[in-house]
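Project outcomes to date are best conveyed with an example. Our students and postdoctoral researchers have been running inverse folding experiments weekly, and each run begins with a structure described purely in tokens. The record below, which covers 60 residues, was selected by the lab manager from last quarter's runs and is presented without edits.
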């Protein structure tokens, strides 16, 4: 099982992709007021979620 993962480049890319996704997750948190996921690297998103009683940001 481990050998198959190590020597199959497709599975290796999937593992790297999953690891990259886990690293991305540390930048997100759930807003306690509107329950929307907020990317803490996005200053506009952070500022939007500061006021009490705000609405969730529109999603494209
Ligand atoms: Zn919010």
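After processing, the design step wrote out the following sequence:
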């Amino acid at each position: 099982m481990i050998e198959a993962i190590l020597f199959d480049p497709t599975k290796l890319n999937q593992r790297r992709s999953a690891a990259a996704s886990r690293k991305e997750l540390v930048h997100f948190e759930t807003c306690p007021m509107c329950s929307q996921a907020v990317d803490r690297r996005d200053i506009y998103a952070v500022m939007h979620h500061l006021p009490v009683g705000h609405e969730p940001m529109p999603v494209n």
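Residues 31, 33-34, 36, 49, 54 surround zinc ion (CB under 6 Å). The helical segments are 2-7, 9-25, 43-48. The training component of this project remains on track.
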